[in-house]
Write a structure and sequence with these properties.
The protein is an alpha+beta fold. The chain is about 25% helix and about 30% strand. The chain folds into 2 domains: about 45 residues; about 120 residues, no CATH class. The chain starts with about 50 loop residues before the first helix and ends with a strand. About 5% of the residues have low confidence.
Length: about 220
């Protein structure tokens, strides 16, 4: 009689040579994972300029146009100045022999001559006795509406003595203004004829001599 190695009442154990019963494995649930991948922008179509590059190109064009405008304006200004200088050079005539200079203007010629002398009739009054012509200040201008002449003289007499001489010449019709170192005497001979005498004496100028500047202006209708 075979021996029963198991405990009484216990179920019989299966033999170790038999495989265990089949147990299906649990299938994991699929969880979608969020991706940070961004799809690249589509490539530009051939022949279609990119917006950013087009804007830069327009800016360059505008800058070039502005520069070209400034260059043209500068060339025009240089031409105008050059033409003006040429006209002035053609209008000025200088006589080296006597130092006179004549400027022809549309209104009439202007003549400057340091050695030119004027008569009392041209000056509109007499030259102060003993006065000598200065090296500059002589001017003669002819205009369609009249003429203007000015001359400068020097004397060793005082300003007050010269002023008294011309006040006596012009009489009560003259008006005078005295500023201390210089004085202005105006004689309106008629509506179209006026003489102005300026007398000045300043230390350190003209070797201390008194300067006499005579201006005679006439207009049409004299």
């Amino acid at each position: 009689m075979p021996e029963d190695s198991g405990m009484p009442g216990s179920p019989s154990q299966p033999s170790s040579s038999e495989p265990p019963p089949f147990q299906p494995l649990a299938t994991p649930q699929y969880q979608p994972v969020a991706s940070s991948y961004q799809a690249p922008p589509p490539p530009p179509v051939m022949g279609q300029p990119v917006a950013a590059k087009q804007g830069g190109s327009n800016t360059v064009k505008i800058v070039l146009i502005i520069v070209a405008v400034f260059v043209v304006l500068a060339m025009m200004a240089a031409g105008v100045v050059g033409y003006g200088v040429w006209r002035v050079s053609r209008a000025i005539h200088k006589n080296i022999a006597n130092g006179s200079m004549t400027i022809n203007t549309p209104a009439g010629p202007i003549t400057s001559n340091s050695t030119q002398t004027f008569t009392a009739d041209e000056l509109g009054t007499d030259v102060y006795p003993g006065a000598v012509a200065a090296k500059s200040g002589n001017l003669k201008m002819h205009l369609p509406t009249g003429s203007m002449l000015s001359a400068t003289y020097l004397t060793t007499d005082s300003k007050d003595k010269v002023l008294a001489f011309y006040k006596d010449k012009f009489g009560s019709a003259a008006t005078s203004m005295d500023f201390g170192s210089n004085a202005i005497l105006t004689w309106k001979k008629s509506e179209h004829d006026q003489v102005t005498v300026t007398v000045a004496q300043r230390d350190g100028q003209d070797e201390g001599k008194t300067q006499i500047h005579i201006q005679h202006v006439t207009s049409e209708g004299k």
